[in-house]
Amino acid sequence: MRTLLLNKLTLGFLSATLLISCAGKKENYQSTLHEPQLFSKTVKKLNDVVLENNFPPMIATRNYVYSTIAAYEIIAAGDPTHYQSLAGQIKHMPAMPKPADTSVIDFPLAAMLALTRVGNAVTFPEGSLMDYYDELIHMADSLGMPEARINGTKAYSDTIVATIMTWSKADNYAQTRSATRYNVTNEPGRYVPTPPMYAQALEPHWAEIRTMVLDSASMCRAQNPPVFDPTNKNGRFYKDMMEVKLVGDSLSDEQKHIAEFWDDNPFKMNVSGHVMFATKKFSPPGHWMNIVGIAAKKAGADFNTTVTGYAKTAISLFDAFISCWEGKYSYNYIRPETVINQVVDAEWRPFIQTPPFPSFPSGHGTASASAAEAMSKIGRASCRERV
Fold first, then answer.
1. Are the beta carbons of 235 and 229 closer than 8 angstroms?
2. Averaged in consecutive runs of 10 residues, what is the pLDDT profile of the chain (387 residues)?
3. Do domains 22-173 and 193-379 have the same CATH topology?
4. Domain ranges of the chain
5. Predicted TM-score (pTM) of this structure
6. CATH classification of 22-173, choosing from 3.30.457.10, 1.10.760.10, 3.40.50.720, 1.10.606.20?
C-alpha cells in the first residue's frame, strides 16, 4: 500500500512538473519569438545579403519594400482591429489571403518567415536567406511551439509570400534589365562618368518602375536646377560650384566624420598606384533600415509597431528613389567634380567619391528626407494605428 501511494505521488509530481515545463516552454517561445528586436535582426539578415551582393540603392529598396510589406500584411491579418491591409491603399496591390484558422498561426513568426522568403526570392544569389529561415523554424521548435502551430504558421506565411511575389513581377523591373544604357555626350552641363571608376551611369530607366503610393514618377519632380553657367562669377551656378570646392578643401575633422558616416556609396573604388580594390558599404536604404531598428528599440515599440515602421520606411524609400531618378535622368545634370576639373582645378577630387549617376536632385537627400518622415511616428508613444 505504501509503495502504491509513493508511486502515485511520484507520478503526480512528474505530471505536474511536465505541465509546468510545457507552460514554461509556451511562455518561452512567445516571449522570444514575439520580441521586436528579433524582427529587426531578421531585417538585418536581409540587409547583410544586400550589402554582400553589392546591390545599388534603388534595387536595394525593391528588396526591402516587398519583404517588409509581406511581413506587414501578416501582422495586419493577425490584428485587424488595429491594422489594415495595404491592398487598396496601394492601388495596384491585390487582396491578400485571409487566415482560415488563426488558432494555428503564430503571426510574429509568420511575419519573419515571410520577410525571409520574399527577401530570399528578390536577392541574389537566391537561397542566401534560407539557412536563416530554417534557423527560425528550429528556434520555434526548440522553444516548444507545437508542431501543428509551426506548420500552420509556415502554410499561411507561404500564401502571403506567393501573392506578394506574383504582384512584384508586374512592377517593370524585369523589363528594365534589358533597357538601353545612358548615352554619354559632350553637351555642356550634361553628366559624364567620373573618376576613378568612370562607371556606366546607374539605372537610367528606374523611373519606369511602378510606384507604390505616388501617382507617377514625375509627381514630385524637383524644380529646375541652376542654369549651367560656370564662368559667370555672379551667377548661381558659379557660386554653388565654388562653395563645393571651398568647403571640400577646408573640412574640419567633425565634418569629415559626418561625411564618412553618411557615405553610403555601396561600391567605393580605392586606387593606390597601380592597385585598385573595392570597399562595400550599406547604401542609403540599408543605412535607414538599420536606423528604423534603432529608433524602434529606443521607443520601446512592440512587435507590430516595429514591423509597421519598417514597412512604411521601405515604401517611402522605394518611391523616393523612383521619383529622384526620374528627376536625375530628366535633367542629366553635371557633377561638381566634373565642372571643377574643367574650369577650376583639373586635379581636384571631393572628399567622398562621386557615385555614378547625375547630380540633381540629390539621391541621398531625397531618400533620407523621405525615410525620416516615414519613421517619425515610431517614436511617438509606439501607438497602434490603422495604416
1. yes
2. 42 41 60 96 94 89 97 98 96 96 97 97 82 97 96 98 97 96 96 93 97 96 95 97 97 95 73 64 86 94 96 97 97 98 96 94 94 81 40
3. yes
4. 22-173, 193-379
5. 0.89
6. 1.10.606.20
Q: Cell numbers of 324, please?
A: 529622384
Burial status of residue 335 (CB atoms within 10 A of its CB: 0-12, 13-18, 19 or more):
buried
Residue type, 326: E
Question: Which CATH architecture does the domain made up of 193-379 adopt?
Answer: Orthogonal Bundle (1.10)
- Chain-centre distance of CA 280, in angstroms? 16
CA distance linking residue 162 with residue 171, whole number of Å: 15
Set of cell numbers at residue 332: 542629366
Q: Which cell is 127 given?
A: 537561397
